[in-house]
Amino acid sequence: MSLLFQPQQLGELRLANRIVMAPMTRSRAGPHAVPSAEMVDYYRQRASAGLIVAEGTAPSADGLGYCRTPAIYNAEQVAAWRTVTDAVHGEGGQIVLQLMHVGRVASHCNKPAAARTVAPSALRAHTQVFSDAAGLVDTDTPQALSSEEVQAVIGDYRQAAILAREAGFDGVELHGTSGYLPMQFMASASNRRTDRYGGSLANRVRFPAEVLAAMAGAIGAGRVGYRLCPGNPYNDIQDDDPAAVAAALIDAVEPLRLAYLHIMRSPLPELDAFALARAHSSAPLILNEGFDAASAERALQMGDGAAVSFARHFIANPDLVERLRHQRPLASFDRKTLYSTGARGYSDYPAWRD
Fold first, then answer.
1. Which of 279, 228, 232, 223 is nearest to 251 (CA)?
2. Which of 59, 100, 153, 191 could join 120 via S-S bond, C-beta 3.0 to 4.6 A?
3. pTM for this prediction
4. Active site residue ranges
């Protein structure tokens, strides 16, 4: 029997198969960062995945930065997320929530009026984000977090993990890549701090390590994972030694015995992120980026990881698990509707019909 379709344990998470749905921002949340009815249908349709990692979700109003992305910091958001998790569990699925604080990769156009754009240092990301109100806009120049404010942000992540469990999620995943707040702390070019969260390598990985420790302490380490992509330059991230940074963080959180490490293939040809993760982490690995059924099966057979996550293939194939199981053709998705509104190009992709 193919390893892809065998069960797998990741901490406290019991997967029916080793096919994971990777988190993907799809910009379908409603006003006030509240999950929408379309999101209920979308995740229900994909519940046959061994594990769904739901899209990046802000742990606070300050953590928002894109248009129509969800959050989890108030009762209305928790109640709406509960309808999503109930739908997934009703189909026999498992779902964790990816917590994503975008830090400086933000525009005030996409935030509540009182929310701030914050970062380790007051250095703007040289990139743009889309706003429904103004189109493409430059990111804000962020306010540098004080040492006390860093502690408050860690508290936001901890509370978001607690609220995620209240909303019915089976666990949480820390978004530690793509140039968002944890990576802003880790990268040498975006962190110019002189306190205990800046300077040395150990200091720069301290923030994400303390976030993971806080979440693990709140809901149990067996329900907490994290995602890394060493060397990912997305959103204007630059670092002198990305392999050393990733290794330092993995080493720092190794004693926590987290549920999994979701490791993405590095865009740097000289950096084997999967080998680095295996060398430094005893946590089960979810491998991501560029896999098809055959390459995923080979990776599992070689012992490279415990599971494989798919992103693009899940967009137009809500029944991806069954299509892979029966070697059915995969549908292609419409790029024009990736970040639009409503059900079109989101929850209206059909399952296979014989």
1. 279
2. 191
3. 0.97
4. 180
